[in-house]
Amino acid sequence: MEANHLLHSGYFNETLRSWQGSNTTLNIKQLIYPVFVTDLIPDESSEDIPNFPEQRRYGVDALIDHLSPLIQKGLKTILIFGVTSNMNKTLDGAYALSKDSPVRRCISKLRSQFRSLTIAIDLCLCAYTSHGHCGILKSDGTIDNQASIERLAEIALCCAQDGAHIIAPSDMMDGRIGAIKKILIANNLAGSVAVLSYSSKFASCFYGPFRDAAQSAPSSGDRRAYQLPAISTGLAIRAAQRDVNEGADMLMVKPGGPFLDIVKEVKQHFPHHPLAIYQVSGEYAMLWHAACANAFDLRTAVIESLTGMRRAGADILITYFTPQLLEWLKED
Hints:
The protein is an alpha/beta fold. It has helices at 14-19, 60-72, 102-113, 145-162, 176-186, 208-214, 234-245, 260-269, 281-292, 298-312, 322-331, and strands spanning 31-38, 46-48, 56-58, 77-83, 118-123, 166-169, 194-195, 200-201, 251-254, 275-279, 316-319. Strand 2 and strand 3 form a beta hairpin. The longest helix has 18 residues, at 145-162. It starts with 13 loop residues before the first helix and ends with a helix.
């Protein structure tokens, strides 16, 4: 056998194997834990979410109680989604600006309670609009892009002033990164608040359990006019390029597993921007249900799936398995 045909010599022990994929290492600092805070229930309570196993919506105080032991285990970053009652939802999503909204109420409490915690806020109008779309609509039912990005920028400023470290716009409106950066600059916050853009976010069936959690499904139509079509690579790269040009600090691909080719392409095009990947609710539910059916071991499958995401080029892993991973990665 020719020497250059010998591969086993490069990975016959654990140390050698680890050198073959240093870019696939998993650690706690890479994790972002998505959480749901709500005013549907008392602040000290939490509730199950249908079709979303082992995930809950939390009142403001209950969220703090939930996070406390996780932070002691090393949790570094959370991504907050707000859930509010239908009576607070309007055509223009104005309640997102209210100091009474669950997101705004919890930011200052989290900052004072957990000094080491990095707080990211998901920025979108879908949870606050009566129609459930991610932007403000015109009279004909199409997106009013300019009105939408102005409202999103206003919300971003409120959350930044409340103490959020990261604004993460998920709406997919054209120009929203520029609008957010502009208002942060104007208010002397540009250097202390990062923008993590959901730059390459695809229209997907894998968001199903999340829409139950956030109670944010559109009342009519769908989001395919502004979320990216799953068939397109070019639009994903163009969307990332647009957001880089407008000042995004970090990029994202969402969903995760079905779009690893996009992760690789985005990372190759923008190697100097940290790249997040979102292992979305449907991916989480598939792994959880398959493990419950004894198709495989949950821990092994989750770590393998996240390793694939790292191998594709992801630097940041947004996953609902974060609480388990805080334990699993320490054991490794």
